[in-house]
Design a protein that fits this description.
The chain is α/β, with parallel strands linked by helices. The chain has 18 helices and 13 strands. It binds adenosine-5'-diphosphate, magnesium ion and zinc ion. Belongs to the helicase family. RecQ subfamily.
């Protein structure tokens, strides 16, 4: 057995690599000869691609991740594996911070992974520490997770990610691995440019996930949408047999989260709301109840989910339209991380479309006014939204629409969407919807 295989088993507890690609990436990162760019779907196991090399490396791996909550999950997880990881962030108690800094200042630090947000990278308080580990050659690897946040073409742009280019230029000789789940071509180019990746080894997995069944239901055509949602959830969770797995319903507003959770519970499926209007304590309870299986369904705004790592999500339903096809792909992709058959359903309504369309255009106009620009770039949110609408309103394979949006070939759907399963039903629904709208 090689050191890599042994580490995979004994330190991470995995029998084998998830996929050929995961293994290839791990080996390329360990080699450390070139920068590495990884684009693999949610659930493919990207974290391991830098965590395993970090364990084997001499020195520290610096991990950049966009959210403190996400960082905390990962650090907790690594701690349970007895892998020394911590994070320096604004929420850290002073004493813990002091301990971490002391370790980093010591001759041979014990820490293997140091997680920080991009804000922290640029903060003056962190510079002495960073300079000290760099100048002593202790930095083994720079890992940038959720790297699409660096691109203004992406659906989740964070200006602080742009500071990483400057960081990179201060770390000559330290290899960089950039990881993301969602990167159309132009986002990939932005990432390579912004992070100054030098002819990176690129691992791009197709976005197609054949265990996800996509369909679109026109909500306004339903006699009772709540009963419809309930039936869907029940079936996805395993029908009358002992309930297995869990589900997520995404809503746009706090009110609809409350409403839908209440209705589902009344119809017999335990559901809890999750949104920014709840007290922090209630939000944590909702999440914990769902994570630990006491509640089958969480009804949430999109603030829920980034970094939520639950393997047995059997369905993701969107009660309202998503703001872009890229975000829809990411949100619905939280289903079926264990590879088992799972369901992704959009409850579409032209009313939602018109509302969102209005809001997105207003936001774009506001930005243009502020910057006084008319750049092509400003239109990105509108184009992404139009792709989302086309996904719902056009006849055609849903998987193909997603794949082509990300620049992939048309996949072999083989009945894993409503259109390929039965195009007549989709066509009939569209006709009824158009009759309704012209009435
Ligand atoms: P991503 O960041 O690509 O969305 P994660 O790194 O969060 O994915 O991993 C998703 C899940 O897959 C996690 O629960 C992780 O523990 C699991 N996983 C990763 N690698 C393996 C493996 N080789 N064997 C089994 N499970 C794995
Ligand atoms: Mg990840
Ligand atoms: Zn299809």
């Amino acid at each position: 057995m090689t050191a890599v295989e042994r580490t995979l088993k004994t330190r991470f507890g995995f029998e084998k690599f998830r996929s050929r690609q995961q293994e290839d990436v791990v080996r390329a990162v360990i080699k450390g000869e070139r920068d590495v760019f990884v684009c693999m779907p949610t659930g493919a196991g990207k974290s391991l691609c830098y965590q395993l090399p970090a364990v084997l490396a001499t020195g520290i791996t610096l991990v950049i991740s966009p959210l403190i909550a996400l960082i905390q999950d990962q650090v907790e997880h690594l701690k349970t594996l007895n892998i020394l990881a911590s994070s320096i962030n604004s929420k850290l108690p002073l004493e813990e911070r002091r301990q971490i800094l002391a370790d980093l200042e010591s001759e041979s630090p014990r820490l293997k992974l140091l997680y920080i947000t991009p804000e922290m990278v640029a903060s003056p308080s962190f510079q002495p520490c960073l300079n000290s580990i760099c100048s002593r050659g202790l930095l083994a690897l720079l890992a940038v997770d959720e790297a699409h946040c660096v691109s203004q073409w992406g659906h989740d742009f964070r200006p602080d990610y742009l500071k990483l280019g400057e960081l990179r230029s201060r770390l000559p000789g330290v290899p960089c691995v950039a990881l993301t789940a969602t990167a159309p071509k132009r986002v990939q180019e932005d990432i390579a440019h912004a992070l100054r990746l030098k002819s990176p080894l690129t691992f791009v997995l197709p976005v197609f996930r054949k265990n996800l069944k996509y369909d679109v239901i026109f909500r306004d055509l339903l006699p009772d949408p709540y009963i419809h949602l309930h039936a869907f959830a029940k079936e996805a969770l395993g029908g009358s047999t002992a309930e297995k797995g869990c589900g997520i319903v995404y809503c746009r507003t706090r009110e609809s989260c409350e409403d839908v959770a209440h209705r589902l519970t009344k119809l017999g499926i335990m559901a809890k709301p999750y949104h920014a209007g709840l007290k922090a304590g209630d939000r944590t309870t909702s999440q914990a109840d769902w994570m630990e299986g006491r509640v089958a369904v969480i009804v949430a705004t999109i603030s829920f989910g980034m970094g939520v790592d639950k393997a047995d999500v059997r369905f993701v339903a969107h009660w309202n339209l998503a703001k872009s096809l890229a975000s829809y792909y990411q949100e619905s992709g939280r289903a079926g991380r264990d590879g088992l058959p799972s369901f992704c359903r959009m409850y579409y309504s032209p009313k939602d479309r018109d509302q969102l369309n209005f809001l997105i255009r207003k936001e774009v106009a506001r930005k243009q006014e502020k910057r006084g620009s008319q750049k092509e770039l400003d239109k990105a949110p509108i184009l992404d939204f139009e792709a989302m609408v086309a996904f719902c309103e056009k006849e055609g394979c849903r998987h193909a629409t997603i794949s082509q949006f990300f620049g992939d070939q048309k996949p072999n759907c083989d009945g894993a969407c409503d259109f390929c399963h039965n195009p007549k039903v989709v066509r009939a629904q569209l006709e009824r919807a158009s009759a309704l709208s012209t009435r």
